Automatic annotation (TrEMBL):
Protein name: FecR domain-containing protein
Residue ranges of every copy of the FecR protein domain listed in the record: 125-217
Family annotation (PANTHER family): PERIPLASMIC SIGNAL SENSOR AND SIGMA FACTOR ACTIVATOR FECR-RELATED (PTHR30273), PROTEIN FECR (PTHR30273:SF2)
Organism of origin: Acinetobacter thutiue
Domain of life: Bacteria
Domain Protein FecR C-terminal: 259-323
All copies of domain FecR N-terminal, residue ranges: 19-58
């Protein structure tokens, strides 16, 4: 079998797996699986390709859960009225409905929509508030996820790509045997790693880059702006503009669960701590501009804020899932 025929066969297998996954997904939405159906589903998942595809379907399901149920029903009914109910089309209905809902709702780019038609295997990793995670990818690259972060890892024969959907990551790249370039993608553009160690923080408004070693090339989403950022330098960018940023190695100490600041307004300090706390932190507006300096732990936010309150003679109230700071 030649390479083209093999590739075509592989794509057909992936499409069939997606169709089967869509059938399982819709079946589970209708009612709980019977014992026999559960056994059949578990047997189906024993195939590695099926596991990868099911993980992707669960990712789509995560998107659905964020959207109003009434609009989901209306959109699915719209497709249901126009398309026959053959199993081969269920996946198209599912993904098309999701795409329309996503655009129609104007979902913020805090967790942007992935490419759903590439059929590339996707590995998804995420951390909850107050948690961090260290990964070794299949090529040997090391990735650390900060608190409340999420990535999608897409490796195929041509590329090594990490999609940063939210939060912050630190990467130590590894030389690839197949000479595939490693890139990090956010909704603002791509970061191309040229043998490097770097840190990326993503928010809806911008992506922040700190390069510790090597060079990272920024390509904004519109592909009209690019810039190489060398070691010991930093930058921020959005979809069409790249701006220089002061390089501070202390910003990468989050891996040691440390927040090191110098003359940072208390309001901003609270924002930096919030992803590491399971509950809510309330700050009296009059205290926003108090300047904070020092090295603080992100592992025990209550203790950190108690130290800040004591240093600046503030009142602190600690309740279940809530901390309040006032004069």
């Amino acid at each position: 079998m030649d390479s083209n025929a093999s590739s075509h066969s592989s794509q057909q297998e992936k499409k069939q797996a997606y169709q089967q996954a869509a059938e399982w997904y819709l079946l589970m939405q209708e009612q709980p699986l019977t014992a026999q159906q559960q056994a059949e589903f578990e047997a189906w998942q024993q195939v590695p390709l099926h596991q990868q595809v099911w993980q992707n379907v669960r990712m789509f399901d995560d998107k659905f859960q964020r959207l109003p149920k009434q609009q989901i029903a209306r959109t699915v009914q719209h497709f249901d009225a126009k398309l026959p109910k053959q199993a081969a089309q269920l996946c198209i209905v599912l993904c098309s409905a999701l795409g329309l809902l996503y655009v129609g709702q104007g979902v913020r780019q805090q967790d942007y929509f992935p490419e759903i038609w590439s059929f590339d295997p996707v590995e998804i990793y995420h951390t909850e508030r107050g948690m961090q995670q260290h990964l070794t990818l299949q090529d040997g690259s090391q990735v650390w996820l900060n608190s409340n972060s999420k990535i999608r890892v897409k490796y195929n024969s041509q590329q090594r790509r990490i999609e940063l959907a939210k939060g912050e990551i630190y990467i130590e790249t590894h030389k690839d045997t197949f000479k595939r370039q490693l890139s990090v993608r956010t909704s603002h553009g791509d970061l191309l790693a040229l043998g490097t160690v770097f840190n990326v923080r993503y928010s809806a408004e911008k992506t922040e880059l700190l390069v510790r070693q090597g060079i990272v090339r920024i390509l904004t989403k519109d592909r009209q702006t690019q810039q190489d950022i060398p070691a010991q330098h930093a930058a921020t960018f959005n979809q069409d503009k790249i701006s220089p940023k002061s390089y501070q190695a202390t910003h990468m100490l989050w891996r040691q669960q440390l927040l090191v600041v110098h003359s940072m307004p208390l309001g901003q300090f609270i924002k930096e701590l919030t992803p590491h706390y399971q509950g809510k932190i309330q700050l009296e507006p009059a205290l926003d501009e108090i300047l904070i300096s020092g090295s603080y732990s992100t592992q025990d936010v209550e203790k950190t804020l108690s130290i800040v309150a004591n240093t600046h003679h503030l009142n602190i109230q600690v309740k279940p899932q809530k901390i309040q700071l006032a004069q």
